[in-house]
Design a protein that fits this description.
Layout (H helix, E strand, L loop, with lengths): L1 E6 L9 H15 L2 E3 L1 H12 L7 H4 L1 H22 L2 E6 L8 H11 L4 E5 L8 H6 L2 E3 L2 H12 L1
Parallel strand pairs: 1-2, 1-3, 3-4, 4-5
Length: 153
């Protein structure tokens, strides 16, 4: 089984790397599941193209920035729709400024891929769209882990 780890990156502290590393290790040890970690996947593109300053292009060369970001978007769409068996999504305040997480959850829903969403915002701040696209919503990672152990363990 392969889990895609969806959540804020662009406006998140550490691009959301810490929580992704933590759940990746747990999934591997407890369930033997693989993950698609978009932080790592993006890092590979950055290293391969030597584009470490790509975020500066948003201000200095929007065309170049758009073309570069296109690689991330295509990669994530392919990962969600063609590789992942399920999505683990961390929904927190950082997703409100971005768009990728919204898109990933919607694509998963459209393709019948289960979305297990951990909400760190009040239910009143969770959009009806995201609620509708989510297979199951959890208040924290411990609840998610218990569910996944019952489902896959």
């Amino acid at each position: 089984m392969i889990a895609y780890l969806s959540g804020a990156m662009e406006y998140a502290q550490d691009e959301g790397e810490a929580w992704r590393d933590s759940i990746s290790e747990w999934l591997s040890i407890k369930l033997g599941h693989d993950v698609i970690n978009p932080v790592e996947e993006s890092r590979l593109i950055i290293e391969k193209t030597n584009s470490y300053e790509y975020r500066d292009w948003k201000d200095t060369d929007i065309k170049r920035y758009k073309e570069f970001m296109h690689q991330f978007v295509v990669q994530d769409i392919e990962s969600v729709t063609k590789e992942a068996n399920y999505i683990i999504c961390l929904w927190n305040k950082d997703v409100f400024r971005g768009a990728g997480t919204h898109g990933e959850v919607t694509l998963a829903f459209e393709h019948g891929i289960p979305v297990y969403l951990i909400s760190q915002v009040p239910k009143t701040d969770l959009s009806g769209w995201i609620i509708a696209c989510s297979t199951k919503i959890f208040d924290n990672f411990e609840e998610l882990k218990l569910f996944l152990l019952k489902k896959f363990g």
